[in-house]
């Protein structure tokens, strides 16, 4: 199921996605379950409802498992960040963060992975657990499903994400990149919660998804890109790693949203020679044909409607209606109409115009002031 969450991030919007989401081959071996599913659609959905897959929990419902030589401070830090995310998005179960080092210190990781149905070889080679990814899954297509969302990262990556080592980036920047990535991945957990027994993604995605909701790549990733941008832009000052620092010390990824907006607008007006995005079209629905910034398109939809609409209402009806019908119901336009509306908005007749977002385009303040994630009632 989670393979579809994966390729887009690293391939189409690399600067906005700190965590490389590697495709999982989890689905391949289970394509045969489709027939079973068709016959027992109701009970499968019931199963997801029964395990509380789409229900925000009262407690801190996630877990972290680390190789024994990873300092406890890493777990403490993750709990701090996850607590913030839970207080906004809600606390969803069956989400496990695993942080690895070497085989010698990783028995606990191997044991936990075995327990949750991980079927790949339990071995760390050149610093990477075989088949590791964030986000990846286990048990999602087993019969019956026993789904877990796993974020498997190696400790070296936590310390030095992406090219930060070569650039010798300060620790605050590195931590901001990781926090942004954790938020992005956890947002995907929230999304998969509400598609329940149906897979997030499209029937054109790899590899035999189960009754996919036909959600375009720009929606799945765009929603999960703009979330950590808005979240970290406001909440960074609450995190202990950034005590005494300024926004400028911490700003990574898309936290400087006005700048990202201006960049996107320049691209769409042909003012950035490197850019291949001259209009937002159906090409953005698939990862391999996409060229545009998805986060800003989602922000535009939220500007027209609300973040409650874009993040919650559309997700709420996704399982029962599928993506297109849910989108039209809540946005009041078809996808194609929305692309045209966005292009009309962004592409200027005279491209020497204004590249600042209009007043109120990006909301300020706590996300809980403008979105009630906990109000969601999916699968009813
Ligand atoms: Zn993603």
Summarize the structure.
The chain has 380 residues and is an alpha/beta fold.
Task: Please characterize this protein's 3D structure.
Helix 7 packs across helix 8 (217-235), helix 8 (217-235) packs across helix 11 and helix 12 (307-316) runs antiparallel to helix 14. This protein folds into two domains: 2-218, no CATH class; 228-375, no CATH class. The two termini are 22 Å apart. The strands form two sheets. It has a four-stranded mixed sheet, sandwiched between helices. Strands 3-4 form a two-stranded antiparallel sheet. It is α/β, with parallel strands linked by helices and 380 residues long. Residues 1-20 and 22-35 have low confidence and may be disordered. It contains 15 helices and six strands. Residues 5, 9, 21, 184, 188, 221, 224 line the site of zinc ion (ZN).
- Biggest sheet character: 4 strands, mixed
Helix/strand order, N-terminal first: HHHEHEHEEEEHHHHHHHHHH
Strand element count:
6
Distance between the termini: 22 Å
Order of strands across the biggest sheet? Answer: 1-2-6-5
Spans with pLDDT under 50 lasting ≥5 residues?
1-20, 22-35
């Amino acid at each position: 199921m989670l393979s579809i969450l994966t390729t887009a991030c690293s391939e189409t919007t690399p600067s906005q996605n700190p965590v490389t989401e590697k495709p999982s081959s989890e689905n391949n071996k289970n394509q045969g379950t489709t027939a079973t599913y068709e016959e027992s659609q109701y009970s499968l959905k019931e199963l997801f409802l029964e395990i509380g897959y789409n229900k925000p929990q009262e407690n801190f419902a996630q877990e972290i498992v680390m190789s024994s030589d990873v300092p406890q401070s890493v777990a403490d830090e993750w709990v701090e960040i996850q607590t913030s995310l839970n207080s906004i998005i809600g606390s969803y179960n069956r989400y496990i963060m695993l942080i690895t080092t070497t085989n010698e210190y990783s028995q606990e990781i191997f044991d936990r992975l075995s327990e949750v149905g991980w079927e790949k070889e339990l071995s760390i080679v050149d610093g990477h657990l075989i088949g590791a990814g964030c986000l990846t899954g286990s048990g999602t297509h087993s019969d019956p499903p026993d789904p877990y969302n796993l974020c498997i990262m190696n400790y070296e990556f936590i310390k030095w994400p992406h090219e930060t080592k070569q650039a010798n980036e300060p620790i605050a920047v590195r931590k901001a990149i990781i926090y942004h990535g954790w938020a992005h991945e956890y947002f995907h957990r929230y999304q998969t919660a509400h598609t329940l027994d149906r897979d997030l993604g499209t029937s054109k995605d790899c590899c035999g998804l189960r009754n996919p909701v036909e959600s375009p790549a720009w929606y799945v990733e765009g929603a999960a890109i703009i979330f950590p941008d808005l979240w970290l832009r406001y909440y960074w000052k609450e995190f202990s790693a950034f005590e005494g620092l300024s926004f400028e010390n911490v700003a990574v990824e898309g936290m400087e949203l006005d700048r990202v907006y201006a960049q996107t607008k320049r691209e769409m007006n042909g003012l950035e020679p490197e850019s291949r995005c001259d209009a937002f079209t159906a090409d953005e629905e698939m990862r391999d044909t996409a060229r545009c910034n998805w986060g800003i398109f989602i922000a535009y939809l939220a500007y027209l409607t609300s973040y409650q609409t874009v993040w919650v209402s559309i997700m709420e009806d996704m399982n029962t209606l599928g993506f297109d019908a849910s989108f039209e119901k809540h946005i009041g336009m078809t996808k194609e109409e929305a692309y045209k509306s966005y292009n009309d908005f962004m592409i200027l007749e005279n491209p020497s115009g204004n590249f600042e977002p209009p007043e109120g385009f990006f909301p300020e303040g706590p996300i809980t002031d403008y979105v009630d994630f906990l109000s969601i009632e999916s699968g009813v």
